[in-house]
Fold this sequence. Notes:
Blueprint: E1 2-7, E2 11-12, E3 17-18, H1 20-39, E4 41-47, H2 51-61, E5 69-70, E6 81-82, E7 88-89, H3 96-99, H4 123-140, E8 144-146, E9 149-151, E10 158-164, H5 166-177, H6 181-187, E11 195-201, E12 207-217, H7 219-222
Parallel strand pairs: 1-10, 4-5, 4-10
Antiparallel strand pairs: 1-11, 2-3, 6-7, 8-9, 9-12, 11-12
Helix pairs in contact: 1-2, 4-5
Amino acid sequence: MKLYFIRHADPLYALDTLTAKGWHEAELLAPRVAGIAREENIVDIYCSPLGRAQDTARVSVEPIGRTVITKDWMLEFPAKMQMPDSRMRMPWDFLPGWWTKQEDLYDKDNWYQGPTMSRGGDVKEWYLRVTQGLDEIIAEHGYTRDGNFYRTAKGNTDTLMFFCHLGVMFVMLSHLLSMPTPVLWQNFFVAPSSVTLVSTEEVVPGEAAFRVKYFGDVSHLYKVGEKPSDSGFFAEAR
Length: 238
């Protein structure tokens, strides 16, 4: 079983759509999606309800005659948490001198309900909504979660595709890989229109582990000389 995670193309956040570059990226992504469709058994294509993801998906999947299934829980992870000074903010893009001292954020099982994230806000609520939504989809294809891996009565070659956002994508990946989400939020980046492939590995019959085969791939941009966007990556000192 294969799961493709595609981040929306370069965003125009103010209007919740794509920039001119983003529309071009989506057009360059479309042949990549068509190639996956030719080679894989794409059963379902899921998408965030937000405009920038919907626009990217529409340009990418219309040429192959497919429609998308919109899942409300796939919108960019909207949870807020309360900082020590009582300010409410999104639960990532922390400064390293602060967040690396919060040991509970490295706890894969409890980071979302430890003292840092549970001070106030709705991180736990949204984390469980996303991970339960993902597990429900995966269970429909014969894989049920058992602790930190999945069981299956009969493996399959179903392929699913998700058009989403960096934040919520890392929530889903961290769940599949049994990692603390803050580590992905803080230490990993995927460019707009990038493609990430996660596949099951079933060495023991009935036991499936998800493994990343490639991460944040933008070869569809590089092959035509299009520079990837850095949207969401903060390289400068603040």
